[in-house]
Amino acid sequence: MASKVIDLRSDTVTLPTEAMRRAMYEAELGDDNVGEDPTANKLQEMAAERMGKEAALLVTSGTQGNLVGILSHTQHGDEVIVGDEAHCYLYEQAGGAFIGGLQMRPVPNHRGHLDPKEVEAVIRDPDNIHFPRTSLLCLENTHNRGSGAVLSVQETKDLADVAHRRGLAVHLDGARIFNAAVALGVPPKQLTADVDSVTFCLSKGLSCPVGSLICGSVEYIARARRMRKLLGSGMRQAGIIAACGVVALNEMVDRLAEDHANAKVLANGLANIPAIVTDPGIVDTNIVFFDVPDVPPAEFLKGCLEHGLRFQNTAGRRYRMVTHYGIERADIDAALSIVSRVLAPVQAPRA
Ligand code: TLP
């Protein structure tokens, strides 16, 4: 087994920076459950400002952010339109159904993008007594299973316009919204201008140990605060967590461009390995998916791990590598040479 492991399983494996550890130690604290933690309040103000919304709320995770975000827009028995490969549809324990009595209505995902016509087609007629009320559209930017695909300002607006015209609210799972903003070279508030609420994560590419923020109107965030309490996450000295978030928003956003450049090199390198099938052209940010059709996953993963490389097998013979803080260009070169070595005996799959 190699001594150093290059861990490309996710950007969630990032560790807090020295500045974050110092900020935690020095953070001014209070009881956030009654809104008195100065550091949590500061982070919430910064988050609201970055997203161009009136208010924000710190929650424990992206999953909780989406759940609180969705519950705060809906009533028991409502229907929520969501892409059929959305994280909040596939990977969040069906929280909307479990806790909120919501029915998720999936529409086709096209490599991370939704078609406004397909969204409009499934909005229910509110006057038909047989139907649930469609009350919410959920979007995701960047799109995890869409290889980190970026939704543009215009695309977000087109989808939100359809929803708003038909009386739906729009929630954006912006777990990696800063990746989208950096990739497009626009401030994140342009990407959130047309949605009613957005959740973003501190604990992915921004390298914090814990935390996500929900942003929206003052009235919406007041509802979200009650939902967070209901879910048992009214926190006390939350400034310990928030302190890292303040550092992240000040220091960790612009460097995401390095992760994107590394992902491009990685994707192009993988595409040059004969046993691999992938499309480097769709890599906009820090997530790379690829297939190795002719090798059993257990064998491939074990071979790579023995040489010091970890990544995820997401389904069948499909894999995901994610670049992040702590992964340098030299690690990408090393990762590519490990994969080449492990797959050297395998011929190119037949087209
Ligand atoms: N994604 C994680 C997990 O699936 C393990 C990952 O490694 O990519 N929205 C999106 C788009 C996400 O990618 C994730 C996490 C979440 C929400 C949920 O965030 P957490 O893990 O903080 O609950």
Note down, in words, how this protein is organized.
- With 351 residues, this protein is of the alpha/beta class.
- It folds into 2 domains: 6-13 and 255-346, Aspartate Aminotransferase, domain 1; 18-251, Type I PLP-dependent aspartate aminotransferase-like (Major domain) (Aspartate Aminotransferase, domain 2, 3-Layer(aba) Sandwich).
- Helices cover 40% and strands 16% of the residues.
- The protein contains 14 helices and 12 strands.
- The chain has helices at 18-26, 38-51, 62-71, 87-90, 95-100, 116-121, 153-165, 177-184, 188-192, 218-230, 239-251, 256-271, 297-306, 329-343; strands at residues 6-7, 55-59, 79-83, 103-107, 134-140, 169-173, 197-201, 212-216, 287-291, 309-310, 312-315, 318-322.
- Strands 2-8-7-6-5-3-4 form a 7-stranded mixed beta sheet, with helices on both faces. Strands 9-12-11 form a 3-stranded antiparallel beta sheet, with helices on one face. The protein has a two-stranded parallel sheet with strand order 1-10.
- α1 (18-26) packs across α11 (239-251), α3 (62-71) crosses α10 and α12 packs parallel to α14 (329-343).
- It is globular, with a radius of gyration of 21 Å.
- The two termini are 34 Å apart.
- The mean pLDDT is 97.
- Ligand TLP binds next to α3.
What summary fits the major beta sheet? 7 strands, mixed
**Ligand set:** ligand TLP
Mean pLDDT metric: 97
Quickly count the domains.
Answer: 2
